[in-house]
Amino acid sequence: MFNSVNNPFGRMVQSSTSSDTNGRQQQHEQQPQQERKLLEEEEKDEVRLGGMPLLTEDEVLSMVRTYIANLKAEYENNEKALKKADKWLEKFDVKKFMKRNPTLTCSDFYMIMYMETDSIRS
Fold first, then answer.
1. Labelling 23: which of 41, 70, 82, 103 has CA 20 to 30 A away?
2. CA 43 to chain centre
3. Closest by alpha carbon to 64, among 112, 100, 122?
4. More confident residue, 120 or 24
């Protein structure tokens, strides 16, 4: 690999990759085992920032009504949007909503509601 021009000291130089193959091979074998251990451990995936409390069904229902009322006020000149908002509110089922979003906090609520009511705005 090295010749006398690249190695003026005349010493035998071994490649670092050839001496480290056993270490790397062992590391590659250990990595899947570590990943398997991590998958087997049951860790909670959720992170609650700031310890925000979870919303109850009554709070969600109240917030939905307020959200739709604000949406209707925003689109008071658009009759089609008002009808869509009323229809959406009639079809709203708080139990299904809570089942789909079991760990709902206040900030999550507004993000989800924006996505759920997108059809009203368009």
1. 41
2. 15
3. 112
4. 120
Q: In 3D, which of 75, 122, 74, 71 has the Cα closest to residue 92?
A: 71
Closest residue by Cα to residue 60 from 3, 113, 7: 113
The amino acid present at 17, given as its one-letter code, is: T
Task: Tell me the three state secondary structure of residue 95.
Answer: helix
In contact, 64 and 88? CB cutoff 8 Å: no
DSSP symbol at 59 = H
* Structure confidence by residue, pLDDT tens digits, 11-39: 665 555 555 556 666 666 777 777 777 76
Give the pLDDT of residue 66.
96
